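User: Mind token order:
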Amino acid sequence: MLDYDEEADAYDATRGGEPRAAAAAAAVTGLLPEDTRTLLDVACGTGTVSRRLAAGPPGLRITGVDAAPRMTRMAAKRIPGAVVLGDSRRLPFPDGRFDAVTSVWLLHLAEGPDDVRATVAECARMLRPGGVYVTTVDKSAAHDVGSDIDAVLAPRPRRPAQDRAGHVESYAVEHGLLPAGRARFRGHGQGRSPRSTVADLRRGWFTRLAPDDPLTAHLIARLERLPDQEVPRGEPEFTLLAFRKPPAG
């Protein structure tokens, strides 16, 4: 897994920046009940999405939590609310404290299904009755847009996808949540070009493929033969699922 303390300074610039954050926040907001007043953003990162959520529905108060110290320090400067250091599998808050909980671009990073279950369980624990949990699913699959770059990368080893929609839904149901909607949004600025993909391979972005692996050299050679080296291919479309905790009684 990437070291998100090391990634913090370049994170926004390499992940679509403000346009992607705006698209994510708008899609999340569209899945929240109108009476949402308190929201916990789990894995808030640098706070770009959280800040836009806070600027949405009037009176919405955001609390951010992230496991990377440098990320939390950056987020604290952006989010008009509390930001704390914490593990998504053991959140440092009492039961039923929030009207909504979000985990955008988190579950795909889990090492295995037990970690995903633990995170979903904690997010469910945070919700008051009637509250809503919103999370991204199928993130890695979204980046495969059927381009010539994807064809070149097809032989690379991949991590098992821990955030498959069907699995996440089953974990949510296990912890008393009910499906409550879905939305999609564009990953602005994240279309791959051959040259940017080569750079990512050389810096170990593809976590199952080391920069000094012979397969890396083979893929780089093929990527460097593609046309339009600087031209990004299609942008990913990310998927959000929403789940509601049933009202009390």
